[in-house]
Amino acid sequence: MVEKKGTNVCRMMILFAALSLMPSARGESPLPVLAWSASGELVLPPRDETHAVLAIKDPSIVRFNDRWHIYATTASERGWQMVYLSFKDWKDANSATPYFMDKNPGLKGYHCAPQVFYFEPQKKWYLIYQSQQPQYSTADDLSDPASWSKPQDFFDGKPDTVGNLWIDYWVICDNTHAYLFFTGDDGRFYRSSTTLEQFPRGMSKPVVVMEDKNRFHLFEGGATYKLKGTDQYLTIIEAIGPDGSRYYRSFIADRLDGEWKPAADSWEHPFAGINNVTFPDGTKHWTRDISHGELIRDGYDQTMTVDPQHLQFLFQGREPSNEKIDYIKLPYRLGLLTLDPATAKRPADSNR
Predict the structure, then answer these.
(1) How many domains is the chain built from?
(2) Rounded CA gap, 340 and 328, in Å?
(3) What CATH number is associated with residue 219?
(4) Could you tell me the maximum CA-CA distance found in the chain, to the nearest angstrom?
(5) Which among 249, 256, 341 has a CA at the least distance from the CA of 305?
(6) 149 is in which domain, residue-wise?
(7) Which among 46, 85, 40 has a CA at the least distance from the CA of 67?
(8) How far apart are the first and last CA of the chain?
(9) SS3 10
(10) ∠ CA(18), CA(311), CA(74), 5° rounding?
(11) What's the pLDDT tens digit per position in 89-138?
């Protein structure tokens, strides 16, 4: 559908106001509340005769050659592994034939939380994942999951600047450098970098770029993007709300090595969470968690560019339950959020 130019401009203004203005002095955001519409459950845990999968999580997605390509985490009694799915249209997502990545001889065992992108300077696809340390594989064809190379480490050992845990690694590049961001369930957001010429070698010692005394406010699942048509970058980080539900906070910076400033960043007014997600009529309210996911990119290269006029967010969610279940057994599946900036409301007008 072709929209009038005025409509596009209006939507852009609303979204940039929501993403780039700072909170007020009294701690409340003067921004419009971002409003998302949720799909139903699009991808259920895939299984075959040798993989009794309980959950599918942590998706990384690109559109390439007129198909969607998803690399994601699977959880089962055997632990954490990865899976690849490819399909043309969302209606076919749940029927896509899974390729379980432990079929690749180099990727047996514990590997999860993938990120996939095309590194233009080398004309290669990269798959980044945790094993626990950050590792990567390369391939010439992302649609051939058996072709990914043997895992390689980014670091010779765990740097002494990192806390007890380091997880959920994310690479993004500007015109000169490649940056590796990650979290650690400890209220810290870390950054390392190297030049484009050296990548993936030469990563600097990680430094803390954001920190919160409450570790649940900066928890995990971080991702960083270039905002198309601007000189700004967006970081989203998963947090845990007062009722235990997962949600996303957002931060804006002018440089990848610059200062990150809060945007839509609270439980009441999140980047994405149950307080700004609605389920259209006829769609089951199947999750309170808006958890580890990835924004749909405008392209597939190392710049991680997203179009703020057309944001969608592939995320993991699950049926709410009061039952005490081991984390690995939580029945996560994938759904899609679509941003509707035209329905964004200012906090004062919100009934939430």
Answers:
(1) 1
(2) 33
(3) 2.115.10.20
(4) 57
(5) 256
(6) 5-349
(7) 85
(8) 32
(9) helix
(10) 120
(11) 999 999 999 999 999 999 999 999 999 999 999 999 999 999 999 999 99
